[in-house]
Amino acid sequence: MKKYIIIGLLLLVGGVFLLKPLLNGSKEIDPTEEELPAFFKFEDNLATVGDEKAPMVIVINRTDISKLELFYNDSVLKTWINPKGKIDFTLDAGLFGVGTRTLNLLSTLSDGSSFVDNRMVRVLSDIVPLKKTAQIVGEYPHNPTSFTQGLAFYNGKLYEGTGDPGDQGNTIVANVELTTGKIVNSIGLQAGFFGEGITVMNDKIYQLTWKNQKCYVYDVNSLQLLSEFNYKGEGWGLTHDGTSLIMSDGTERIVFRNPETFAIERTIEVYNNQGPINYLNELEYIDGKIYANVWTTAGVAVFDPKTGKVLEEISGAELFKVGRGSGEVLNGIAHNPATGKTYMTGKNWVKLFEVKFVEPGN
């Protein structure tokens, strides 16, 4: 918990809204809870589940508070003028979905000075994910030299994007023949560019890069490079919902982007009933849900694109045993809307599988 005296406005520092002095030379102080004009009467930070309401008490410590504001993330939930005594307040913690949120109590005194009591709120999902397994329906050859980072169908054709762990210029985007695993045509990136997730939307292939902070856009038929976008941070997985591009960066965060500008439209965090799901990697949007490979595991998290709540957890352990060969982790999910079939593979795997997701025992 941090508390600062300020003159001015709310700034985002390290992902957390903190109040800082605006005037050069102003000194930050760290008052004790009892020295704050107003403070939350609960220990440290707050944890809630789903849409659970969180009752809290706000203690008013001084009589010269002209205005008291309660911020949840960057939104003002409540304002009190000349508050006195103590305040009982019920927080709708699930207002912004699951994830880690900031709670700030800003006291503005009659002399214009301001103080803040800052806490964190972690909102867990209220859903216990349904456990499923990936059951093998069919097997196909997969090129063991393909370090699979993205997999997608478009107009009945399979497209694959690869990485380049040896930094040898092996990153490609390719149209791959499903039944043989052979590359029909492809385009590559030079050494130093590590390809990540791909998706195909409106006759365009979008390809992320891991650390180069670029998304390349190709014509789906000719594979000619059309344009590129810049972004901050790492690129991992990519899919779309027909309107927005949906991107992972290796954390629990999922970002929705405009396909024409790559501008961020909104962000969600992916949580189950125990906490965040980190290392979200290759993505696929299937029937209103997002499927995500969880890196270093044989697991897939299925979550609601609106709330970030994990609905299902799928084990791909059987695929790992049968198809890995000398390859690495499970990575690559592709759904063919034309047939309703779903396929999975991994990095440098020898096989690609048609799968269905079933509950254990079925």
CATH superfamily of the largest domain: TolB, C-terminal domain
> Roughly what percent helix?
under 10%
Strand order, sheet with most strands:
25-26-27-28-12-31-30-29
Enumerate the spans where pLDDT stays under 50 for 5 or more consecutive residues. Answer: 1-30
Average pLDDT reading: 90
Largest sheet: 8 strands, mixed
General shape: elongated
In the CATH hierarchy, the architecture of the largest domain is 6 Propeller
Q: What would the CATH topology of the largest domain be? A: Neuraminidase
**What structural class results from the helix and strand content?**
mainly beta
State the helix count: 1
Cα end-to-end separation: 49 Å
Number of domains: 2
Count the beta strands.
31
Descriptive report:
Helices cover 2% and strands 54% of the residues. The chain starts with a strand and ends with a strand. The chain has 2 domains: 2-124, Immunoglobulin-like (Sandwich), CATH 2.60.40.10; 130-358, TolB, C-terminal domain (Neuraminidase, 6 Propeller), CATH 2.120.10. 37% of the residues are buried. It is mainly β and 362 residues long. The protein has an 8-stranded mixed beta sheet. Strands 1, 5, 7, 8, 10 and 11 form a 6-stranded mixed beta sheet that branches. It has a 4-stranded antiparallel beta sheet with strand order 13-14-15-16, with no helix packed on it.
